[in-house]
Predict the structure.
Amino acid sequence: MRSITLSQAVNEAIAEEMRRDETVFLIGEDVAEAGTPFKVTSGLVEEFGTDRVIDTPIAEPGFMGLAVGAAMTGARPIVDLMFGDFLFLVMDQLCNQAAKTHYMSGGKLNVPLVLRTNLGATRRSAAQHSQSLHALVAHIPGLKVAMPSSAYEAKGLMKTAIRDDNPVVIFEDKLMYQDKAEVPEEEFLIPFGEAKVLREGRDVTLIGTSSMRQVCEAAATMLEADGVSAEVIDPRTIAPLDEATILQSVKKTTRAIVVDEGHQNFGTTAEIAARISEKAFYHLDAPVIRMGAMDVPIPFSPALEDLTVPTPEQVAENARRIVAGELIHAL
Amino acid sequence: MADAKTNTEDYLQMYRQMVRIRTFEDNANQLYLDAKMPGLTHMYSGEEAVAVGICEALKVTDKITSTHRGHGHCVAKGAAFKEMFCELLGKEEGYCRGKGGSMHIADQSNGNLGANAIVGGSMGIATGSALRAKMQGSDDVTVCFFGDGATAQGLMYEVMNMAALWKLPVIYACENNGYSEYTKTDEIAAGEITARAEAFGIEAHKVDGQDVLAVNALTTELVQRARNGEGPFFIELDTYRYHGHHVGDINRTYYRTKDEEAEWKAKRDPIKLFGDWLTGEGIASEDELAALGEEVRSEAAEAVAYALEAPYPDGSEVDMHVFLETT
Ligand SMILES: Cc1ncc(C[n+]2csc(CCOP(=O)(O)OP(=O)(O)O)c2C)c(N)n1
Ligand SMILES: [Mg+2]
């Protein structure tokens, strides 16, 4: 099968859906000629023109609001938010307007829009360009949240997002744009709420979202050398969350570590760990371990920044310890 | 204090500060090209007369807020090379102990409340700083630097309204360099930029941002009036950035021609224009200006060498400064 980059995968997904449905349009800063700073949307304006690939002023709350209005009246906008950190600027339009419209209208209005943005630290971009804020929007009822972990997922999830009749926020990992993966040429979609078991194992379940999927896979490889068998699961969407696949795995392995690049406190790891604890408690042989980004603003200095994100070594170490029956958090 | 710069010492100080900014940026760019600097940075080269013309009209306790393109403001407000280069390299002795980097450099000892990686993000801060000065009865003025692209942010209109209602001592300084990222300003800004301020009854001026004397004369007058309670004011400064949007923006002919860049550098370089004026007026000789340039270059080289060798912060600092721990 051919391999393409995550960036090409997103580009293809958008192009295919724009060809398929003329109500789909792309709006954001420098999305046309410049193709975004990460060069993800290059070539789209040449094919679809400036009516459907729209460069905006630097006015995130403004164009987010425009997208909500256009979606309520029949379009399927894809909003490009250059950095996930700018979510804080669009929160009212996204969370108070887009997320609640269908419910507040008693089911009469709906907002089929996609907000595509990114997450991920270690680019030396400091505290306002490095956050992973998916938990923040996953907290809001009415929003779906997808977190592709490779080019394959990026394409399949983007196409599903565009066809969804509700607001969807997609977080791409900035560090993964040039990473290649096998992506079929034929059309495919990845349904929301379906986790993927990437590797089967007996002793511990490693659940990794987005950028942390590779971290979990690398940890599993290290653990194999020590005779520890790890199962690796990528939830792919956190809202909705495929509880069934996660619970089934944990009931088998009896141990779980949840790894995610958002801050640990009140984060995605906490939500998944809580669901496991509530629903598989009597199957567990160890407390569920959360591993999120350190609860600090992301520092600029490489000497500090690298300490804030979970590494395969740390995941493997925690796995070894819980499999050996050690307590990670002393009583 | 109310007078624009008129004596030899002041002129040479302005010239030196402009050369210091250019030299700082040349070194920062080289550090990036040599893969010695983490991340990306935005060069101020070409816009030196804006920061220097304005900051030379301020006193140390006056405040500024800066932008992602902030090295120029930082130098002009009095920062030292050593701490700045240390910050750009993520070293412990940097202005922010390596935590901020290029886009968050701040130097509160000189009244620099910080660069900002959110476009338009400092407009509230600048206006709040002016509110504080007024509440305290101090005569400090705050200058809010921002780009033409930032005029698209709604926050600007909310705070200009309040600044005008409450006559706050703030000066909004719009550095119009013709582009926001990879887009021409004409394509993303409707109407006149100064008209935005005028709509709130704020006195707005347009000035050639390559002419340091013009910038300084205007700012000096407005700062004085702001101290007397006549603020706020708005200045649009016509200028140009020589480099790409950031140091990695090398192939940029798709949005900006090489001829256009060459023309600004040849005909409207702020340092060359001011240097020519200084020699023409007999204030300094070409040799003196060249010697000054050499002096600044060796100051920068020394600071870079120091910063490259300086230690990174200890890992234990990673969770320091999330909160101020009051004992
Ligand atoms: C809220 C926000 N939106 C977008 C960006 C990305 N961005 C960084 S600089 C920039 C352009 C800013 O243009 P302008 O204000 O004219 O300043 P200049 O770079 O020209 O100095 C953009 C879009 C950002 N940092 N913050
Ligand atoms: Mg600009």
